[in-house]
Structures
1.
Amino acid sequence: MFAIYDTRGRRFRDTLENLRKVQAQNASENIQLRNNVTEDETPPIPTPNDRDKAEISNKALQSYRDILQLNQREPIYHAHQLMSHPVTTVSMELDILSARRFFQQQKFQQMPVINAQEKIIGMLSIEDLLQFIIIDGEQVRYTRGKKVSDAMSQQVITADPVSDIRRIAQVMQEYHLSGVPIVNEQDRLIGIVSRSDILRAVTNDPPLNMWS
């Protein structure tokens, strides 16, 4: 299950297939995103407090493998098993220069943006900041009066903790994302899956067909 968040909150929650439809429509016209929480694309699992002890039935696993045409050797990974956490975030009210310094300290290329209620509302990258920064030799000039909220990507695609990692990899590839934030049903940011997280899983426990 994937979702889209912006400054108004959650605007969409549905399967990967419907995410593609919405994104395709957004490219040509301004539509109202629907919020559908009645469907899921993975078998339900217990709450995060119990997930480490949970066992998914062999029948459910086999059904899921059949859907994705996986063989018995291929492990099934969900986002909560691979995600990095806690997540370093940046406030929407931070000014551009302070945000740049924060990025330099953290050594990240991209961070989720949160509002005063600590809800995710966007993503901010180094490239987003550069549109307001001019570096001339050793001098750094920036557009005054601008904040992170002015530079960030206005919509962010997120995934549920139980989203299959293959589906997340597909979203990254199709929408040129370096990371996908993981948000639970209470709209709480609980982790992030990056390209390096996926590569680590493939390296440590092959084979894993990422493009099933």
2.
Amino acid sequence: MKRILFFFLALMPLFAWAQAPTLDPTATYYMTNDKGEEETGVIGSETGPLNAPVRIVFQANTSRPFPDGFSSNAHYTWTITNTKNTTAAATPIVRNEEDFELEFNESGTYKAQLQVLFYDEGGEDIIYEYPEEGDEEKIINFTIAESKLEFPNGISPNGDEKNDVLKPKEGFKSIVSFHAAIFNRWGQKLYSWDDVNGYWDGKVNGKVVKDGVYFLVVSAKGGDGIDYSIKKAINVISGFNNGEDENGNGGGGGNE
């Protein structure tokens, strides 16, 4: 009987090793693309540059075959580095949760690495490490796009769904703060908005403005630190001329 017990005790470490936990680190992104649509996906080798601001959820995806006593004794270390930013101030992001989320507002090329130490029930001896020595470490790589912001020279708010509204040209990237305003030639503000996915529909008080020249003023900041100060004339050509004029006067029926 003693021999059987001794043999069983001798096999316990081997059993624990055979029942080692498995991990599959993943990162899932949530962002608004340049068409104003919500977009999500798991970051992989086919993932293109992401548009800041972007929210990313990191998960270790741990499978723990150990008894409950072992499950709580794990130490997680996520290290996220912007490898494109080499300045002294660019310090890695370090988090110790198993799962967490972050919002990224800075352009660059990032890598996320996970290391985990599993301790015995007493919390003193390491019984398993991830990644194991000699194993290839799984690194999650992703890129936050350089910023881009351009506007057209005019709009035709006539309801044909072609160039009806004033908004950034398709393809804008990584704009993390934004303010735009429309003025008439006398400097009166007609409309303003604070979302890069927003727009001006060519209306004031619900009516399309008269055809003519208006002025767009934009103040924005990109994830790469670029400050955008855009001031340009906008031609409004609807063909109706029955809305408010550039001085905010008059008004017949409108159109969208």
3.
Amino acid sequence: MTDPANPDPARSFGSVADSYDRGRPSYPVDAVKWLVGDEPVSVLELGAGTGKLTEVLVGLGHDVFATDPDDAMLDILSEKLPDVRATSGTAEQIPTGDSLYDVVVVGQAFHWFDHAKALAEIGRVLKTDGRLAVIQNERDERIPWVRKLGRLIGKPDSAFDPTKVLDDSGQFSAVEAKTFRHWQVVDRHSIQDLVLSRSNIAILDPEAQDQKRREVLAFYDDYGRGMDGMQLPYNCRAWHAQVLPHAEVKHTVEVVEVADAERPTVPLAKRTDTAVRLPRVVTDPDNGDDDLLIDFR
């Protein structure tokens, strides 16, 4: 459980889920095509959040299973995309069986993972010749006004690059990388959502959050753009690598029976396909053909 006195930035987004959905940019279609391909495939999305990347994947015809550790984020995803399977889960303990997905995709979340545990899990759930695809939007702070905005809302993730982590793991082929440039139109409303959606600001107390919001609003008003908005430039960086055959990880999963009286009562979230409604899928360790068991706890 998160210590209220020392909030975890990685778990801060649920409290600002609406702002995140309104204020964060989407991803260029060309970048997602390059990552995942043109032909429909089975995709597991880790850290799906409110579905920014999910929407693009679904629009390209892919079959997506979306996971995120935060129910508040997934509620928004499922309101927008009610036909997409979505359930709570972390990259370090992925709630699905072995060798099921053509692609595991991660948007704006890979840097939060415990990489050793997450990469083992990703190798487990990928099919033979499956690939890991990572994508990250980064503000282009070569432009002076964007750099000034960055000083107000916090540093960009410009140092982020998963290549060394993937190379050092020994689980993946050589990493391929490509950068796509795109723009997000921000106006007087959405720029406030953008600042509130930042993890370094989401963990602040309400008074400090409001102070930062007012600073960014004054910055926007100084430019006199009103509701015409301004074009915020991004470099969308994308990486993919194929899982190596020797890296396919099989785990033995122990299924423990729990008496009905011991089963906790869990309230259903608003979304149509929740972690409660979606059974956890595990493999039978005693069955050589990897038949699936369904654990409805």
4.
Amino acid sequence: MSSLTISGGTVITRAGGVRADLEVTDGRIRSLSEPGMAATGARQIDASGCLVLPGGVDPHTHVMGDIVAATRAAALGGTTTVLSFTNPASGESGLDCLLRRERELAATGPVVDVGLHAMLYEPDRVRIEELQAIRDRGACAVKVFLAYAELGIMWSERGLFELMTAAARTGQIVQVHCEEGELIDGLLDKALVSGSKGPRVFADTRPPQAESAAVARTLATAAVTGACCYLTHLSCASSISQVRLARHAKTARLWAEVCLHHLLLDSTRYESTDAERYLVAPPLRSLEDCEQLWEALSDGTIDTLGSDHSQTRSETIADISLSGRGYYYGLAGIGARVPLALSRGLARGLPIERLVHLVSTGPALAFGIHPKKGSIAPGSDADIVIWDPVPTTTLGTYSFDDGTGDSVYDGEPLVGQVRDVLVRGEQVVRDGHYLGAEPAGRYVRASRSDPSRL
């Protein structure tokens, strides 16, 4: 069995930070020992002056367009487990797509571990046998959309009710993209009739009210059916208020997520000549909304912090474009998520333990892969990040080599550095550089279903 000792650092556990040496055997954490008391391993890593963190778990990504590039970027940014959506092809069932994506992962060889969320692109079609098969294949969740009628994937209120009723029986989390599609379509039609054009139209026709109304509907449906729901990429204060109300009343079983760009970027970006760079759904919000999201991170309202990394961007309808072609939306951020969350979060006074929960432990708990992932504890996979809190740098477009080109985080100041990264005890990043070793990643199956947080 291979062995490794990481010594000299402060290990961040669920109970808090502790000065300890970390012993790793055969890809798993064996023990935490008092400094200097660990058995001498075949390999030694000196973490003096650094924090030793559990590898990041990104709960919200779209990486299947280029698995290697996306997971390499994840590793460089301290994420060792990526949970990706399957994105079915036209006419492809959720189960068939899940099986196809499993085969693609096996053939490609990701750099870090990858789990899958099964998207359901056949609106209002609920088949209990398919849901059970998806669960049995280890999918972390199923996901549906309350918008995008133009893509043919928008679920109705009745369809959501039927799906949640079935998911409550099968013990699965239902992820919901919360935007009211009919409201968006009405606003879009009104904008087109008035002659409005430009990338700002995409953002303006998806207001906060469209999101918070869908959040309220989803929480009500979850409460009625008893299903556990996961609210993806919440972006505005009114949605946060809905979550707080549900939590206070204990009416719905839910998990709540925000994404990096909604914390760091605001809607003034749409006033610039390069507004298309920042298009995303839901759109960037006001600075006040950003501040409310930070408060929700701090007070425990939010459970997880994702990237919503888009390896390839999606195209809007052509009608809103000045050129007659569609604009492109979706942001890349799988590498930037952990470094910027730690840097900005600590600067705002959030404890390191809370930040680690958001970027690692919380997602692992939500999707049934904890304690294998998301914590430093005996028996857990040795997915480890050594983070040096001292260096100061500035992010560039190619800092994480994700193959997506221009980055919205280009020029962002960063305090601290992801120094070393291990995936199940195998080092994939050293001194901030990808080692280019044999791919260490595997497909991760959810080991249990519906671990709801009330």
